[in-house]
Amino acid sequence: MGQLKDKIAIITGSGRGQGLVAAKLFAKEGAKIVVNDLDQDSVDSAVESITSAGGSAVGLTGDVSNAEEVQRILQLAGETFGGIDILYNNAGIGYSATDRFGIAMSDVVNCAENHWRRIMDVNVGGVFLFCKYGIPALIKRGGGTVINTASIAALRGAQDAHAYTASKGAILALTRAIAVTYGPQGVRANTICPGVIDTEMIHNTLIRDSRISDVLEKNTPLRRNGKPEDVAGVALFLASDQSRFVTGEAFAVDGGITQQIGVS
Asked: Which residues are catalytic?
């Protein structure tokens, strides 16, 4: 019997990368999955990979910063599976945005105003909208769990990506507030703060240069960059009853890099 048997999970940004690996793992553990991403091909491919392995999944494209599209995704979960038990806000704009969306990661002085707004709209606004419309659905089923994706950038200062860093810090604060406010109604909320995770998009932007990858690995106590499976395992813990007395916490999945003195 899987750890998530008969649970219903929405995972945003699950057409690829960390979200896709989590969706497959959750499905393997018995969850019914609602896949979401920006492009239809990724959504269709993710749904097919889950169902062909014996899992249950449906999918819908949608921009997490658009309230109408968020509500359509939640409506799909309700109409198809009867509601939601797990809300995993994984979608966001990160370092891959330069290649994928033309959004530059820079310091506060050099950050374009439209780039700042777009990063905030997606990273913070997406979490806000899914929680605004999704938490009542969790409560309707007697409670559930919210998992929000932040970053180790929310835990440490960095010389660039200030909009990204600010957005991830906001997610941490919002998650704690949600945990306190909705805990009495059976809703738990926690944050995952990934470090350098070697997905296809990150590999093609941040660590495609072996010299950079080597430096990152040497600065990590576990002496390797992370894998999507490392994040998915923590997400499974937070989604399952194994974490039933855990809420309002932030989990760094970074190989120990944030525990060091003198490493930024």
From this structure: 164
